[in-house]
Amino acid sequence: MSSHYYEYPNGEVHKLSFTPGEHSEAVRLPQAEGKAKRAEYCRRKLKETLKPGDTVYCVLRHESRSGMQCRIDLFTFKKNKPVYLSAYAADLIGWALHSKGGVVVDGYGMDMGSHLVYELGASMWPKGTRRPHSTRNGEPDRAGGYALSREWL
Length: 153
Fold this sequence. Notes:
By secondary structure, this protein is of the alpha+beta class. It has two domains: about 5-40, no CATH class; about 50-150, no CATH class. Helices cover about 25% and strands about 30% of the residues. It has helices at about 30-50, 85-95, 110-125, and strands at about 5, 15, 25-30, 55-65, 70-80, 80-85, 105, 135, 140, 150. Strands 4, 5, 6, 7 and 10 form a five-stranded mixed sheet that branches. Strands 2-1-3 form a three-stranded antiparallel sheet, covered by helices on one side. The relative contact order is 0.16.
């Protein structure tokens, strides 16, 4: 099933596998432009929810028999309620979101949740954070990849 990108008048950009209704004011975008606009939209939405120093919680949904691929869902908590991050994270990073849940992560031999959260931070703050969010190797750290911490649920 093929998907297309649609931009709405309110600035939302969505990847859809269906055509919006005839009364929708959504504009279909070319694939490359749509992918870029969707990534930027996801970055904005994630920055509304996550700040440097926040914790992202990982839930392992599935691991392949070979151990070389897994699916991980991402959440954070705001006002003691879980906030689902996986769809925005997958589209921002450019990785697949599985239909049964979780961002598809390829690789093995390391903590894949840490890898996913690192890539999320690096994609959210590609030029680093404005202010140091922590220290690394005794020096102030502004690197986006280390701006978020990770916990497993």
